[in-house]
Amino acid sequence: MRKLHGSRNIFDIEVAGAHVTKRNIDVVERCKVVFIATKPAVVQSVLQEISQHVTADHLIVSVAAGIKISSLEKDLLHQPRVIRMMPNTACSVQKGATVFSLGMWCKQGDALLLQKLLTPCGFVAEVPESCIDVHTGMSGSGVAYGLVFAEALADGAVKMGMTRDLANKIAAQTLIGAGMMLLESGQHVGLLKDNVVSPGGTTSHGLHQLEKGCFRATVINAVEAATMRSQFLSNQ
Amino acid sequence: MRKLHGSRNIFDIEVAGAHVTKRNIDVVERCKVVFIATKPAVVQSVLQEISQHVTADHLIVSVAAGIKISSLEKDLLHQPRVIRMMPNTACSVQKGATVFSLGMWCKQGDALLLQKLLTPCGFVAEVPESCIDVHTGMSGSGVAYGLVFAEALADGAVKMGMTRDLANKIAAQTLIGAGMMLLESGQHVGLLKDNVVSPGGTTSHGLHQLEKGCFRATVINAVEAATMRSQFLSNQ
Questions:
Q1: Given CB atoms, is B37 within the 8 Å cutoff of chain A?
Q2: Cβ contact B168–A160 (<8 Å)
Q3: Which residue of B has its CA nearest to A91?
Q4: In this complex, do A138 and B144 lie within 8 Å of one another by their Cβ atoms?
Q5: Of chain B's two ends, which shows fewer C-beta atoms within 10 Å, N or C?
Q6: Which family does the record assign (chains A, B) (predicted)?
C-alpha cells in the first residue's frame, strides 16, 4: 500500500497491483510494515500525523537520509519499532547495496523480516548506525564514482579507436566482472589483481598510470569527503 | 576435447566430462572447432604441427595475446577458417567481456557459432582486428583497474569506520550496480550520474574530490598505456 501526495504516477502504481491512498493514516491502519520514504524535511510532520496510530505491531522503516533513529523514535509514541535504512540507486536494477540499523524497541525477527523484503533489491546488511553515513559516502555516492570510472574507461577506448557504443558496453561489463570476481572468489582483492598482471604485460603498464595519478588516494578522498558531508547533514 | 601438456589437472577435467589427450593432432582429428589457448610463444609450433590436418571443415580459434590473424593464417595451409579472440579474466565468473575478429577465409555463420559458444562466459562482440588491442587495454587489463577501484572504495570506508569485510562486499556490489545501471538503463552515463547528485549532497562532495585528483584523466592514461603496450607486443 502506498500513500501519494499528488496524482502523478498513481495510475502506474495501481496497475502494478498496489493500493493507493492520499491519507497517511490509512497506510498505518492497513499495514504492519510502513516505509517512510518522504523527503527528509517532511519526515517529522508525517511521523507526528501517524504517531497516535502506530502500535507495537508496526515496524516503521525510514529511508530518509540523515534522520537518526533517536529522532525517529522521539517523534513516535509507545516504544515504536523503528529501522533506519540507506539503499543506493542500483536497487532499480536489483543490484543495490542497502544497510540498516535497528532502533532500541525492535523485536527479534525484525532484522530478518527487513532482509527478506529487501533482498530482491540486492545486497543487504545490518550495521551499527555510525556506518550508515560511511555507506552513503562509499556506495550511495559510489554508484556515481563507478559511472564516472566506466565513462573514463570508455573515453580511453574511444581515444584509442573503439566506437563509443561498444566501449560503453565493454566498460560497464568490466565493472560488473571485477565486482563479481571480488564477491564470488572469496580471494583477497590484491591476489585477484596480481592474477591479471603478467610480467611486462599490458596491465602492469595501465596500473603504473593509475599509481602515477594517485588513483587510490583520489578514490579514498572521495569516500572521505562524501562520508563527512553525510555526517554533517545528519547532525544538522 | 582438450590436449594437455602435463598431467596436472587431468583428473579434474576428465571428471567434468571432457576427453583429454596428449596429442595435438588428436584434437584436430576429433573436433571441428579448435581453440588454440597456449602461451603465445608456443602458437607457431602448435599450428605447424596440426596444419596438415586442418581442413575447410575446421574453425581454428586463437586466444593467444598479440598474435595477428595474418600470422595465424600463414602458419596453416588450405585457406584456414581462423578467428582471433580476446577474453578477460571475468569469464571465470560468467561476467567476462570477449571480442573477436574473423579471418579472411571464415564462412557465414562462424561469427554466430562463436557468439553462441562464448555467451555463457559473458558479453561477446565482433570487432575490427585493430580493436583487439584496445579491448585488451580497457577490459583485459581493466578488470585489474576495477579491482583497485573497489579496493580503494573499501579503503575509504575502512578509514571512516566500516569493517573491512563489509566494506569489501559493498564496494564490489557498488561496481556491479553501476555497471548494471549503465548496461540496462539505455540512458547516457552522464544522466545516470546526474540522477545520483542532489544539490549540496554527499555525491557532489565526492565527485569534486575525483575531479581534483584528475580521476578521469588517470583512467584514460591507464587505458592508453595498456593499449599501446598491447599494440607493441602484437608488432614484435
A1: no
A2: no
A3: B177
A4: no
A5: C
A6: Belongs to the pyrroline-5-carboxylate reductase family.
A187 at B interface, C-beta within 8 A: no
Buried b (16+ CB within 10 A) or exposed e, A179-200: bbbbbeeeeebeebbebbbeee
- The tens digit of pLDDT for each residue in B20-71 reads 888 999 999 999 999 999 888 899 999 999 999 999 999 999 999 889 999 9
Q: Provide the pLDDT for residue A224.
A: 98
The DSSP bridge pattern shows strands A33-36 and A81-86 to be: unpaired
Distance CA(A38)–CA(A36), nearest Å, equals: 6
Q: Is A49 within 8 Å of A57 (Cβ atoms)?
A: no
The residue to which cell 519526515 is assigned: A43
Burial of A80 (0-12, 13-18, 19+ CB in 10 A): buried
A209-225 confidence digits (pLDDT tens): 999 999 999 999 999 99
pLDDT at B36: 95
Q: Model confidence over A65-91: pLDDT tens digits?
A: 889 999 999 999 889 999 999 999 999
Amino acid at A235: N
Task: Say which residue the cell 564477491 belongs to.
Answer: A183
* Interval B198-224: pLDDT, tens: 999 999 999 999 999 999 999 999 999
Rg (CA), chain B: 22
Query: What is the rounded average pLDDT of the residues A41-59?
Result: 94
Under an 8 A CB cutoff, do A222 and B206 touch? yes
Interface residue of A203, A212, A227, A236 to substitute, partner B, most B CBs within 10 Å: A203
Measured between beta carbons, the chain B residues lying within 8 angstroms of A98 are none
Please tell me the number of Cα atoms within 13 Å of B91 on its side-chain side.
18
CB < 8 Å to A168, chain B: 182, 189
- Best probe of the A interface among B100, B130, B174, by most A CBs < 10 A, is B174
Q: Convert the pLDDT of each residue in A19-40 to its tens digit.
A: 888 899 999 999 999 999 998 8
What is the C-alpha separation between A139 and A125, in angstroms, rounded? 13
% of chain B exceeding 70 in pLDDT: 96
C-alpha cell of residue B119: 555467451
CATH number of B142-234: 1.10.3730.10
Average pLDDT of every residue of chain B: 94
Does A173 contact B201 at a Cβ distance shorter than 8 Å? no
Residues with Cβ within 8 Å of B227's Cβ and at least 6 positions away in sequence, in order, are A156, A157, A160, A202, B133, B134, B136, B137, B138
Q: Which of A152, A169, A208 sits opposite B220 (nearest CB)?
A: A152
Whether residue B232 lies within 8 A of chain A, CB to CB, comes out as no
Confirm whether residue B37 is marked as ligand binding: yes
